[in-house]
Amino acid sequence: MDRWKNVADAYARSFATLCAGTVDAVLEGLPAGELMDIGCGDGTLMARAEASGKHAYGVDSDPDMVAFARERVRGAVCAGELPSLDLPSASIESASANFVLNHVPEPSASAEEIRRILVPGGRFAGTIRPSGGGGWAAFIGPVFKASEVVPLQGGALPPEKDFPRSVDGFAGLLTAAGLDVLESREIRWTWSVRPEDLWTGIAGGVATPGQTFVAQTPEVQARVEQQFWRRAERDVQDGNLRFSAVAVLAVAQR
């Protein structure tokens, strides 16, 4: 998950607000009590879990994210990443992973690791971004095309390690890891973000769009910025850009 290194502030202002759209659904799939949030990012899910009365703990691979989350939550936040968590087997009552399993280099091993740390009867709830994404791609795609952006090379998992990014594919990944899938479905919502916050994420190297941007020459970056603001000024409504968003939620039990 190296793509997330050193982008905590930019992430919190931009794509964290997109990922927050599934937090309530993830928490609804989990019982009361303790919660381990895997890939906790800026701590949004943990903070909301604590507000609902849960005792939340978190792990993240990025030291900047760990430090950022510690400023927002009461529970402990430590360094750690899938598929190898420094946790005893059968020690976690419930776990969450919001938009995490679609980024790990070893999805199958990561799902098996989640099963390993859960107690018998323990619950997991997580999300992935399905193939095709949402309305956000229809915004940035033309911006990059008009700017003659050179796509990043590589990054895709080998077919033997990947899984279908769909409702059935996510359920299948968890089932193959030995978990009993209780629910698997799509979630849809509208992502509302200020243009300046979205630009902060892109310019800060957040996620694939940001990583693509920072890999360009200064000349191409200047064109992207110009095209971004030209399109943002056209599409903004009441100070915000709005995009249709979609995710796959799965709830499973050991």
From TrEMBL:
Family matches, as Pfam families: Methyltransf_11
Source superkingdom: Bacteria
Start and end residues of each Methyltransferase type domain: 37-125
InterPro entries: Methyltransf_11, SAM-dependent_MTases_sf
One GO process term, biological-process aspect: methylation
Single GO MF descriptor: methyltransferase activity
Matches recorded under SUPFAM superfamilies: S-adenosyl-L-methionine-dependent methyltransferases
CDD domains from the UniProt entry: AdoMet_MTases (cd02440)
Transmembrane segments: none
Keyword annotations: Methyltransferase, Transferase
PANTHER family: TRANS-ACONITATE 2-METHYLTRANSFERASE, TRANS-ACONITATE 2-METHYLTRANSFERASE-RELATED
Protein name per Swiss-Prot or TrEMBL: Methyltransferase domain-containing protein
